[in-house]
Each structure stands twice: as structure tokens, then as C-alpha cells.
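Below is how a single chain appears once it has passed through the pipeline. First comes the sequence as given, then the structure the pipeline wrote out for it. We keep one example in the README because the format questions we get most often are answered faster by looking than by reading.
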Amino acid sequence: MRIDLHAHSTASDGTDTPAELVRNAAAAGLDVVALTDHDTVGGHAEAIAALPAGLTLVTGAELSCRLDGIGVHLLAYLFDPEEPELSRERELVRDDRVPRAQAMIGKLRELGVDITWEQVARIAGDGSVGRPHIATALVDLGVVPTVSDAFTPRWLADGGRAFAHKHELDPFDAVRLVKAAGGVTVFAHPAAVKRGTCVPESAIAALAAAGLDGIEVDHMDHDAPTRDRLRGLAKDLDLLTTGSSDYHGSRKTCRLGEYTTDPEIYGEITRRAFGAFPVPGAGGDARA
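Resulting structure:
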């Protein structure tokens, strides 16, 4: 089995619609794909309706968190999307995304960048607006060559010249909320140093003690020595280890299935979850 547990659609900051994402996942030879848009489950229904036969969908979300001033992304799988407390927190994060994006655009304009809210909103479309949409605008304006180049202290990285805060969950609260909603939590790209400052291993250990289920080890932002170190840490902390593409369509260079999760780990994730269940494809709607 080929299992990719981290992918984004136009419901947040990917460029594939949810329907396109699942069709592209099947074409890439995946058996299982997780749709983990930022702080939203808005793409799940469309993905399920278009799910090809032979592909299983894991429903999820990537939750925006912050610990001691450091951004943390928590992958939440197979939780009950109607659970009220977790749903309310996701809504608070989404509601704060527009004023945050507008604040960042204002800072960029003060730095001499001819960027507008209308341009960013057009790029985001119906998705939950975020930094990748602003980064795409910077690419379109010729300010930076790639989206990744926008995520530096010079521009949009945490603490960068154009950075602005938004409402974010405490990761300990996020773990508690996801577990209460029957889901499973995995710390996304915990050592992606090129994205900015990472939390220390002691924080991961504290999260593990609070119920964190796993860490994403095999990821494009982790080099080989980092992956080895994280595997050792996971073993010490009795955490699951996952591998994922963090696919964003054409917005990033990663490909669906570039990194994958061991089937035994996937099986353990599904065993632990009780808020929702993986959805097997039944042929989908080719017109979706």
C-alpha cells in the first residue's frame, strides 16, 4: 500500500480542487490519501463525492497552533467534524485569517511591495486565505522566485518583516480537543528549520505525555540526518512515525506520494480513531 497522509486542496492553500486532488492521488498510484486542509473540513464532501474506486480517503485537518511564540502545525485525523468545541476553535482560526492577511499586506506595502488585498483574495478564491496565497502574489509580482522563497525573515516567515499573528490554538489544547472528538494527532514537519524556529524536543516530549500520537518524520523539509534523529526521538517517546508529501498542487514542488506512511502505522491510526472512519472509493463522479 502507498499511503500519503498530508495533502491540501483549494479549500485552504492548495491548487487542486478536492475532486482533482483525489483523482490525482489515484493517478499517482496511491491507495490512501488524507485531505488535511488548514483549519477546515470544507473540502471533505467534494473529495468523497469524487473518490475513485481503489482509493481510500482519510478525513482530517492541519490545525494552526502556537507554543511559546513558535508556530506549530498539528495534523488531526478522523475526528468528528461536528464536535462543537473543536469546530468552534477551527472557526475562530479561520475568521482571523482575513484580518491577518490584510495586516501582512499592509506591512508589505509599507516595504514598497505593490500588492493588494484584491490580488490575494483572487488567488485564494473560496479557500481559507493564508500565507501561501500572499507568497504566490509575491511570486506573481516578481518579488521572490518561488513560494518557498517568501517564507524567510525578509518576508513572511514567523517573526519576518511582514509577519502578523492570527488566532492559534495552544497545541496541548489541540491534542485534547482532537482526542475528545475521537481523532488522532500527529505533529507536522516538527524540524522544518527552513520555515523558522522549531520547538525543542522537550516540547515534543511534553506533547507526547499529553496524548500526542505521532510525528511526521518523512517530509521534504527534513534531511536524512533529521529523519534519523526524529525516528530515534519517536522510539524513545513511543510515538507513531508518518511520512507525507504535504502536497499543495502547483504551489509547491512536492509530488503526491513523494513520502509515504508505513501500512502498519496507518492501521494503528485507524484503530485509535473513533470520531470518523476512512472512506473507501466507490467510483466517484468524473464530472466533479
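Residues 84-110 form the longest helix (27 residues).

See the next section for the split statistics.
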